[in-house]
Amino acid sequence: MARPRRHDPDRRERIVDAALRVVGRAGIAGLSHRTVAAEADVPLGSTTYHFGSLDELLVAALRRANDNLGRALREDPGVADPGSDLAAALARLVGVWIGGDRTGVELEYELYLAALRRPALRPVADEWAEDVTACLAPRTDPATARAVIALLDGICLQVLLTGGRYDEEYTREMLGRVLGRA
After folding, report:
1. Which of 142, 165, 157, 155 is nearest to 90 (CA)?
2. Alpha-carbon dihedral of residues 98, 104, 105, 106, nearest 10 degrees?
3. What would the DSSP string read from start to end of 74-86?
């Protein structure tokens, strides 16, 4: 006799959360439907039902990671307020982000950089850049917004790769130069 099917409307989200934890702990190389199913405490078939491939699961995970930083940008009053110092607001926001749990920051960059070898992730990486550009649109032009993104990515990657300390004042000064207020 077949068991009745359990109604579990949050299962897909739990699988994405589990994928983020697996990648955070073991990297993308440690990601499989099996490891995610074990982490989410769901049957293996659930992961393959919701995500036909690991790339589909990585796309969902990267979107979730992007949403976190995008939300922080959209909700930060210093970014939105035309009377505030945008360079200072961004430098402070990045300091909070990178100064917190570095595992989460490393995870987000690992997923972002995975787009180099996984073409399915490239549109999601581009969505993130477009989202940040839209957040900065009231304050600067699209080309400058892209330059801001490149600068912040470079600074964050240097801090993560060297184990160095984030320097908010340096970041503020460099952002001021890019934004035209040296």
Report:
1. 155
2. 130
3. HH-HHHH-TTS-H
The structure's pTM equals 0.82
Sign of CA dihedral 81, 84, 87, 88: negative
Give which of 108, 118, 124, 119 is closest to 156, Cα–Cα: 108
* Residue 130 to residues 95, 101, 119, 169, Cα–Cα distance (Å): 22, 25, 17, 26
Q: Which of 107, 70, 76, 74 is nearest to 93 (CA)?
A: 76
Q: Check if the beta carbon of residue 70 is closer than 8 Å to that of residue 52.
A: no
* Polymer length of the chain: 182
What is the rounded CA–CA span in Å between residue 88 and residue 126? 25
First-to-last alpha carbon distance for the chain, in angstroms, is: 74
pLDDT tens per residue, range 36-92 = 999 999 999 999 999 999 999 999 988 888 887 788 888 899 998 999 999 999 999
State the alpha helices, DSSP H only, in the chain.
Answer: 11-26, 33-40, 44-50, 54-75, 77-80, 86-99, 102-113, 122-136, 142-162, 168-178
**Chain centroid, CA 123 distance in Å:** 13
